[in-house]
Amino acid sequence: MEITQTNINEFYNLVQDQLSKITTKEGLDINNLVKNIMTNLDYLISSETYESQECRICYGRNNLEIKMWIFSLVCMSWTLMNLTNKVKDGHCYNIDHQHGDQNPRECFDGRKFHYSIYQKCIKFFYDSLAVIEKDLDKYRF
User: Above 90 in pLDDT, residue 121?
Assistant: First the structure.
């Protein structure tokens, strides 16, 4: 599976769609969000299987490993797209700023703030990969 901008948009839109359906005045029920996303993963998971005849192992769309893989891509894609959109929009709730109540706000401080979060998020993703990769060093083929 190759990840494209189309995939990322599709993952983002899946979460946005679910958020619009379950967010109430009381806020977001994260358990309900996760359940709804997991329920809708099937159409995102390819029918590709990963099989080892020698070990008699086969992973397909119904295996937890594959579902969690796609779920993590959905979560990562939504997070990065959400932060990216907030950087582009200059997301800000302070209408006392020069931008007032215009939408998008195009707030310099909002852009700077969200970009700093975006950078931390990216760093955490890369750092996580580096830790896992290092752990696997002695098992490389």
Answer: yes
CA-based torsion, 37, 42, 47, 51: positive or negative: positive
Report which residue type is found at 74.
V
What does the pLDDT read at residue 1?
67
- Over residues 52-74, the pLDDT tens digits come to 999 999 999 899 999 999 999 99
Q: Is 45 helix (H, G, I), strand (E, B) or coil?
A: coil
Exposed / middle / buried, residue 118 (Cβ in 10 Å: 0-12, 13-18, 19+): middle
Mean pLDDT for the chain overall: 92
As given in the structure block, the two tokens for residue 99 are 């931008």
Burial of 10 (0-12, 13-18, 19+ CB in 10 A): middle
CB-count burial class (<10 Å; 0-12, 13-18, 19+) for 40:
middle
